[in-house]
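Person: Show me a sequence?

Helper:
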Amino acid sequence: MYINKKDYTLKETNYYKEVYQKTQIVVGHSGRKKMRHFDAWANRRNGNYKKTAPYTIDIDGTIHQHYDPKYYSDFLDCEQDKCNIPIILVNQGWLKLNDLNVYVDWLGHIYSKNIEPIEKSWRGHKYWAKYTKEQFLSLKKLIDYLSNEFNIDREVINNNVYDENVDLFKGIAFRSNYSRDLTDVSPAFEIEKIK
């Protein structure tokens, strides 16, 4: 498994250089096209933005490491962040049809895939950008690697909905398990593909 550790590296001001035992891998998505979320991370708050993740998996399956996963960030804005390893999938998230009958994301960017989005009403939205098979393959490999490296249980939460006890769970969870307001991972995510 190849991990790109040079093209999208964050500065030490974008995470906390402290080490805690890891008990969870938390999967979310970027809500943006391409690697645009990385530029936002690197430049927001004068380069001191800490709501980041050590990994991003691009739509072609390329894994980018932004910082060493033994450290942590404010990914979820809770104490559990110290014990989590977040992974972001490049995905536009929820979509809507504009006046021209074109799917756009929350920023108005066109959903440019040749694949119809998933249609499912969930958390106030109806259409969802699909994740790619290349992302699922890379995600599964990265989860296997991190589970072995950090001795994290390989059990996966079976849904993407809020769970008040998610902080006690040992294994693979999703950012949407932490809040009823978050939409990642979306209904387009096929959980069985990472089990």
Notes: The CA atoms of residues 157 and 173 lie 6 Å apart. Residues 133-150 form the longest helix (18 residues). The longest strand covers residues 24-29. The radius of gyration is 16 Å.
